[in-house]
Specification:
5-stranded antiparallel beta sheet, Aminoglycoside 3'-phosphotransferase, Chain: A, domain 2, 9 helices, globular, about 325 residues, Phosphorylase Kinase, domain 1
């Protein structure tokens, strides 16, 4: 444990001492680690600490070691810091870890977070039932309702880690020329939606922690939170859980569940907003959200399992619609 890391944890927790309990995971491309620490004489028995150390030279598992890639990752940790400092307190109905505080210096960030496992969310899942997916979609609906019409000051202007403006390298190497040509138009349609909220930006199954009874979840990892239409999170989440035939079979059921929950949440949080109008706009953008992520994957990892017939079908539907409009 580095002196800066130890000092940061002790200051933010008011503990007398700190010790490592277990490593949880390494951060992408060797940018640090997440670990669980025990505390001596503190209000908290243990905390989870995200310790970011920006390397001089990173190693990307797929070879994307460009300067732009490194700048994007650096900004993502600055965004996550801003999220916990300025926005997280508004998540009354969308459970996230409480942040005890953040310490930063040049090239290094320390985020001390509540241990969700100790707080009643000990389960992590690699596969889920439809009912468990609906719990996550309910979380997303509440999150999107809370932040509808919120300006993403200090966050990504456009959230999601695959946003076109941040991925020119991946676009350049695509061999799907029709999709490459349509990429800017797809992005613009999503930007032009009059109903913008904050999107989580990486709402995959791995970033949800389940309660013991699997009826509630908490979400983690807010590096790519920013502006956008909520259906981008929805499409990405569903794609993180299901393969193509299951996506087709459950699309209507899952979308209906999400939009029913969104309507209920807007009625409670922002009753002045017409939920039916939001739903209509976002439902129409569901294929565009799929196509947007499909574009990223085709450049970033052409052999990825998520490049399936369902996502291809959704993308072709969007391209045909854009061509008719043109």
């Amino acid at each position: 444990m580095s002196p800066f890391l130890k000092e940061s944890i002790l200051q933010l927790t008011q503990a007398e001492d700190v010790f490592l309990l277990e490593g949880i995971q390494s951060l992408w491309s060797g940018y640090g680690s997440i670990a669980r620490y025990g505390l001596v004489n503190s209000k908290q028995a243990q905390v989870v600490v995200k310790h970011v150390q920006l390397p001089q030279q990173s190693h990307h598992p797929r070879g994307w070691n460009t300067g732009l890639s490194n700048e994007r990752k650096k900004k993502s940790y600055q965004v996550e810091t801003a999220w916990y400092e300025s926005y997280a307190s508004q998540c009354n109905d969308s459970r996230i870890p409480f942040c005890l505080g953040v310490k930063a210096r040049e090239g290094e960030f320390v985020m001390v977070l509540e241990d969700l496992s100790s707080a009643g969310f000990p389960k992590r899942k690699q596969s889920v039932s439809l009912d468990e997916m609906k719990v996550c979609l309910s979380w997303l609906a509440s999150f999107h309702a809370t932040f509808l019409n919120t300006q993403p000051t200090g966050l990504w202007a456009i959230g999601t880690y695959w946003h076109l403006d941040t991925r020119p390298d991946e676009l350049e190497v695509m061999d799907d020329l029709p999709l490459m040509a349509a990429a800017s138009a797809i992005d613009q349609v999503l930007r032009d939606c009059p109903y913008q909220t904050l999107v989580h930006g990486d709402a995959k199954l791995a970033n949800f922690c389940f309660s013991q009874d699997e009826k509630n979840v908490a979400a983690v990892d807010f590096q790519y939170v920013g502006g956008g239409c909520g259906v981008k999170d929805v499409a990405y989440f569903i794609g993180s859980c299901l393969e193509d035939e299951a996506c087709r079979a459950t699309e209507h059921e899952l979308l209906n569940h999400y939009f029913n929950n969104l309507s209920d949440a807007l009625g409670k949080k922002q009753p002045h907003i017409e939920s039916n109008a939001v739903e209509q706009a976002w439902r129409e953008l569901y294929p565009y959200a799929w196509a947007d992520f499909h574009r990223f994957l085709k450049g970033w990892s052409p052999g990825h399992w998520k490049l399936n017939s369902y996502s291809e079908q959704m993308t072709q539907k969007v391209i045909q619609s854009l061509n008719k409009g043109a």
